[in-house]
Amino acid sequence: MRFKTKIMGFDCYVDVIHYSPFKPAKLTGAMEDAEEAIPAEFDYSIYDMDGTYWLELEDSVTEQDEIRLIEEYEAAVLADKYGKDF
Length: 86
Prior knowledge:
- The chain is 29% helix and 28% strand.
- The chain has helices at residues 55-59, 63-82; strands at residues 2-7, 10-20, 41-47.
- The radius of gyration is 16 Å and the shape is elongated.
- It starts with a strand and ends with a helix.
């Protein structure tokens, strides 16, 4: 999925290649039977408004930017699914 956003004040598109949300640990009995938590995976590419890959901007994405991009991506998926802004 591709969505429009701003990074460092620049308008751009984020093309999400793969997303898997965080999965918390499961405790269902004895500790040796517990399943470990699985961290979120978020792979993406960034493009300028003309559709050209923008490596320099992608390399400058901070952890806070990435958290915001995940939130924007999740909202875009819901909007696409339900036809609304969430």
